[in-house]
Amino acid sequence: MMNNNKVYNGMSFNFMKFYLEFFMEKGFDERFLRHLGIMSPEQQELIKKTSVAIGGLGLGGSVFINLVRMGFEKFNVADPDTYETSNINRQRLAKDSNVSRRKDESLLDEAYDINPNIKVRCFKDGVNEDNVRFFLKDVDYAIDVVDVFALKEKLAFNEAAFNLKIPMVSIGAIGMSASVVYFDQKGPSFSELTGMKVEDSYEENITKFVDFLTPEIPEYMREQLELALAGQGSIPFIVGGVELSAACCANEVVKHILKIGKNPVAPLGIHLDLANLKISTFTADYRERVLILPKMKGVA
Hints:
This protein has ten helices and ten strands. The strands form two sheets. An eight-stranded mixed beta sheet has the order 5-4-3-6-7-8-9-10, with helices on both faces. Strands 1-2 form a two-stranded antiparallel ribbon. The chain has helices spanning about 15-25, 40-50, 60-70, 105-115, 130-135, 150-165, 190-195, 200-215, 220-230, 240-260, and strands at about 5-10, 10, 50-55, 75-80, 120-125, 140-145, 170-175, 175-185, 270-275, 280-285. The protein has one domain: 3-Layer(aba) Sandwich (Rossmann fold), CATH 3.40.50. Helix 3 (about 60-70) runs parallel beside helix 4. The longest helix has 20 residues, at about 240-260.
C-alpha cells in the first residue's frame, strides 16, 4: 500500500500531486514544471514570448538547445555550415552520423523533439550585411557566436544590434574557461571593445578578440594558442569550456529578462575558470591587456 505521507523533495506525495495537477490545469507546460520554484508561471510565460536570434551554430548550437530547454519558443538562427569530423570533440550535435549534414537541420530536429511548439526561422546563408535587419526583425535578444573568420558578417551583426538597441551576448571558450559579455547597447559597442576591422589580417583580429574576451590565457594551452594565432595551427577547444560558455550564456539571458541576481554589462564581462576554480568580472576591452607573447606579433 502506498504511503501518501512520504516526503519527496520536501513535499508530501499528496501535496506534490496537488501541486502538479494545479499547474497542469492552468495550462503550464509539463516539460518545464521543474522550473517552478526558480521561475514563477508568469516568468516562464515571459520567457516563452521572448524572441532570440543566434548567429553561429557551433558553440551557438549548445546555446540554442539550452534555451529551448529553458522554455524559449521563438528563434531566428543562422549558420551556413555543415558538421565536420573535427567538430565532434565539442559541438552539441556533431557525431559521425551528422558529418556533412547541415548544422541548422540537425539542431532543428533535436529542438523540435524537445518542444514541438517552438517557432524557428532559419537563415541558411548565415547572417550577413544583406539580411541582418531581417534577421533581427522583432527580436528581443541576440547572441553572437559568428566565427571570426566571417569577420565582415560578425561586425555587421553586432553593429545592427547596437543600432537597433537589441541586447547582444558575446561568448567564447578558452580551454576549460568561459567568458560572457552582455551588451545592453547603452555603453561601448562590440567594435569599440574588440578593435577588430575588416581591413586587418585574421591573425591581428583574432588576437584582439582574445584580448577582449578573456583576462588571461591558461598556461596549459598557451603554446598551441600562440601557434594558432600566428597562423600555424588550430585554436584548441575542449567540450567542458564550450558547454560552460553555452550554459553561462543561457543563464545570463534569463537573468536579464527576469532581473535575477547581479547583471554586469559591457565593458564588464564574466569569466569562469574551472581549472583554477575562479569566477570573476573583468574589463572586456582589447586595450586592457596584451596576452600574446611578443614573438607572436612579429618581434624576434
